[in-house]
Amino acid sequence: MRVLSAILLALMSFAYPAAAAEIRLKDLVEFDGVRGNDLVGYGLVVGLNGTGDGLRNAPFTEEIMSNILERLGVNVTGEQFRPKNVAAVFVTAALPAFARVGSQIDVTVSAIGDAESLLGGTLIMTPLNAADGQIYAVAQGTVIASGVAVGGEAASLTEGVPTAGVIPSGARVERELDFDFSALRSLRLALRTPDFTTALLIEQAINGRYSRRVANAMDAGTVQLDIAATRAGSPTRALAQIENITVAPQTRARVVVDQRSGTIVMGEDVRISRVAVSQGNLTLRVQEAPIAVQPNPFSDGETIVVPRTGVEIDEDPGTGLAEIAGGTSLSQVVEGLNALGVAPRDMIDILKSIKAAGALHAEFIVR
């Protein structure tokens, strides 16, 4: 294991991170009433090249296909369907805020049966419902799937996810949301990351824009805007005037690690108190080298294999105790560990130990 002491002690002379960058208000908050709505539908993809549902395992596919044919005037009562070119799918989409009748939105198509692939398929007209049960859009079009699946008698290979795809502009809006945005007299700004300091900074920035009190921070996640006090004339004009105001947001110190991928993400405000760190490695080697013992010539003896095992243990004494001065930023420590070539998983173990020692002052999230 490479020595950590020199680099960790050298970290004391590094500068602290720069001040937080200023972010536009539209990128920090959600405006009350300016939001999308989720839509979902159940439909049928046809035209597949023998990669559709096996109807014995997906009877719902046969049911929806019968319903579609019945609506088209084809009498299929009592008929048995066994095609392999159709697949039952769920169709999902997001209805944007202020979407108008006739506008088009993207949809995602996902197989729910045992279909092998949706490549080359066409989605048949599918109504999309919102949570209130009303139909807000109708989807139809050619599915674009990004995956591919190939196989033979004894092996198969799948690249990507061929059982899911998208239809760009595949749904047309048929109903608008019943919401009169222009009638609002006050508007709430909901912070995407609630923080008391950030909420107060937003309030001060908006009031500074108008040189009078038009905004009020209600809590860590909400700032109330008085539309009448802005004298803008409408909520649309008021939001257009404030959404590009910049604020330097403040967030809690947080460290997020993903043990599966070895990913470490941290905020710039993470700090470490005075602490000593030591790390070493233990290497165990076991090697088998059996020896074959032959009998004497012209004797009735048998060949005997004599086992021979070599065991060796190497222990790296490590670094001793490398002391980190109080107030050092975690980004500086990680930069030093990276310079030494410390593996991400070893780095995660070191951070866990520093947190357990009470020297890591941040919210530590392990995924």
Counting helices, strands and paired strands, the structural category is alpha+beta
What's the pLDDT, averaged over the residues? 79
Low-confidence sequence ranges: 1-18, 319-323
Instruction: Count every beta strand, where a strand is a DSSP E run of 2 or more residues.
Output: 27
Biggest sheet record: 6 strands, antiparallel, barrel
Shape: flat
Helical amount among residues, as a percent range?
10-25%
Strand order of the largest sheet: 3-4-5-11-7-6
Strand content: 35-45%
End-to-end CA span: 27 Å
Q: What's the number of helices?
A: 7
Kindly give the count of domains. Answer: 3
Rg for CA atoms: 32 Å
Structure description:
The protein has 367 residues and is an alpha+beta fold. It folds into three domains: 5-17 and 254-366, no CATH class; 23-33 and 180-247; 37-173, no CATH class. The protein has helices at residues 5-10, 59-71, 196-210, 227-230, 235-242, 330-339, 344-356, and strands at residues 23-24, 29-31, 37-46, 86-95, 104-111, 122-129, 135-142, 144-145, 148-151, 156-159, 164-173, 186-191, 215-219, 222-226, 246-247, 254-258, 263-266, 271-272, 275-277, 282-288, 291-293, 304-306, 309-315, 322-324, 328-329, 360-361, 363-366. The strands form nine sheets. Strands 3-4-5-11-7-6 form a six-stranded antiparallel beta barrel. The radius of gyration is 32 Å and the shape is flat. The two termini are 27 Å apart. 25% of the residues are buried.
